[in-house]
Amino acid sequence: MKKDIVIPKVEDLAIAIIPGEEDDLWDVYLLNFKPSPLSTVLINSTGYGEIEGEKVKTTTLRHFFEEIPPQSYTLIEPIQDKLFSLANEYWVSFVLDELMYDKKYVFVHGSISKDHFTTVPFLDKKGVMIR
Question: 5-18, pLDDT tens digit by residue?
């Protein structure tokens, strides 16, 4: 029965987007604040929204990481700044203590800007982060 299915809550993870070396490219990172490693990590990324009144959806990219160590980060992908006018979604699934977890992180239209910068842990750089 549905009531018997355990859906564990995802905590101590974040997605951060930080300006890259090139003007038009930024870097997307997954941060693991947990004291344990994450295994079998799958991240789907996609953008969607409207540009000039027309619906737009980007290609869905899939990234796989066998393990992400505790108290660390990993680079997911670069992202072009022209995609910031869309909602950018990162759906993270992973295994921890033999349970599967998943959580969706959505950077809504306009949220990826210097106005929303914070210091990103582990990287000590300024960027936008959803925890």
Answer: 777 899 999 999 99
pLDDT digits (tens, 9 = 90+) for 69-104: 999 999 999 999 999 999 999 999 999 999 999 999
Give the confidence band of 52 by pLDDT, cuts at 50, 70, 90.
Answer: confident
**How far, in Å, CA of 118 to CA of 104, rounded?**
20
- For the chain, first and last CA: distance in Å? 31
3-class DSSP assignment, residue 51? strand
Q: Report, at the CATH architecture level, how domain 2-124 is classified.
A: Sandwich (2.60)
Closest CA relative to residue 105, chosen from 75, 130, 82, 68: 130
The tokens 């306009």 sit on which residue? 110
Please give the Cα distance from 15 to 61 (Å, whole number).
Answer: 16
SS3 at position 32: strand
Cα–Cα distance, 9 to 84 (Å, whole number)? 28
Name 116's bridge partners: none
Cα(99)–Cα(42) distance, integer angstroms: 14
